[in-house]
Request: fold
Amino acid sequence: MLKGLIGKKIGMTQIFDEQGVAYPVTLIEAGPCYVTQVRVAEKEGYLAVQLGFGEVNPKRLTGGQLGHLKSNEIPPLRYLREFRAKDHDLKVGDKVAVGDAFAIGERVDVVGISKGKGFAGGVKRYHFHGMNATHGTSDRNRAPGSRGSGTTPGRVYKGARGAGHMGTDRVTAQNIKVVMVDPERNLIAVNGAVPGGKGSLVMIKESRKQ
Reply:
């Protein structure tokens, strides 16, 4: 079976086990997803399954997107994502639910887009130390300090850490434990935090670092 789903981050809460230990968890509405395409080595050169998630008004999709889905009698879906998969028996049009894909105790990777922070300084963006708060320091507390040499090279190298746009990056939270699976409500709870804000799209995959 395919170990992958598309979902929507609901938020964080806590779950207690039989011994009364509290676990901080992230709730994700995972699936149900439709198989919209199956890629094979003979045609595409690699093995993968494309899943669709989130039914939407057909007017919100382009003609090409609608044609891709209608050809296999699949409802209009807002999000399409691809998962590498070797051993599976899925066909186009099949439905994948959270109870079929994951079980309690498994380890997963969760991929999402991190929260956007806008323009941020070097201290917030790269955890620079900053300068002393005293001994003559008046306006350099959160300054990055020297960026490079003087005569040679006489410029700042590309990629030097400094102030700039922060957030909205693709981030993977790796090797997270599945704490709860609720097939009736299409919910999965994973231990700890995952990237993105409430309502953001996430991909749940089988962990690569088991």
